[in-house]
Amino acid sequence: MGSSMVSRNLFILHLTVIVWGFTGILGNLISISATHLVWYRVLIAFMSLAIYFFCKRQSFAVSRKDFINFFLTGGLVGLHWVLFFESINVSTVSVTLVCISSITLFTAIIEPLFYKRRTSKMEVLVGLFIIIGIYLIFKFESQYISGIILGLLAALAAALFGTINSKLIKKNGATIISFYEMLGAWVWISIFMAASGGFGHDGMTLLGNDLLYLLLLGTVCTSGAYVAAVSVMKEISPFRVALASNMEPIYGILLAWLFFGQKEVMSIGFYAGAIIILTAVFIYPIVRLQVEKRKLNNRFTSH
Fold it and tell me: pLDDT tens-digit profile of 152-176?
């Protein structure tokens, strides 16, 4: 794979992460509950992808096995977003986004299991720094414990479906995967809402600019960004995707300050924890690159 292709994929990935950073802002601006918000979001995303297939006259037929894989993975996607927006509702955008950084930790644990390889010592070290950072956030932002727990569970769900998608993308197109996973997410959430009486709830009523925000969330921030994120997984490892995703808190926190001001100002302990997490994230690729270069040089010199 050429360096230009790597650069292109990394650019797309970081642009996608900026868009993801904006989802927390939209989630905070939309007045309905987390479950109803995600129900509308994945419905709009699924419909926009269906329109894409129709306009392109592209087939979206898949095998039964692939459909089941996509459909089940969609359940994890839906769960991740419900947990994510509920975390924002009970805490703040900043707290939730920093907790989402633990995707790196969970991916470092999950990915070796999926790919049947040994866990890297560097990935474990990065994970330990993230745990220290999360501990500090727990200690200094104890009023947001429920939001922190929900944010960590959202990160776990994201690490799971991200690693699964890294395998699915080897044999399927990103748009096809996204189309069926959005459908799966919508069906699973619909089943939950039907069982819990959510369809008859007043929370489904859209107020003010809710529809506009949902359209942005469902098209630009979901179907568009999700297709882009899944497509780069064909060339970029799940752990590297997870590392890039950790830029989301930086973009998101800056946007939150811009939109919500004083409400998003946290304690010194919170920022200390966030800095530890993000420092580990930024140092890791530099160290890994140096280690890989050293291994390559040793291989050449040994011959």
Answer: 999 999 999 988 988 888 888 888 9
Rounded (10°) CA dihedral 167, 173, 177, 183: -170
Contacts of 2 (CB under 8 A, 6+ apart): none
Phi and psi at residue 21, to the nearest 5°: -60, -25
Tell me the CA distances in angstroms from 217 to 86, 131, 255, 282, 302, one per residue in order.
16, 31, 15, 28, 53
User: Tokens 């890039």 identify what position?
Assistant: 244
Least confident of 221-225, 237-241, 255-259: 237-241
Q: How far apart are CA 60 and CA 72, in angstroms?
A: 17
Measured distance CA(70)–CA(49) in Å, rounded: 15
Structure tokens at 46: 């699924």
The span from the CA of 240 to the CA of 171, in Å, is 20
Q: How far is CA 277 from CA 23, 105, 151, 171, 261, in A?
A: 21, 10, 15, 34, 23
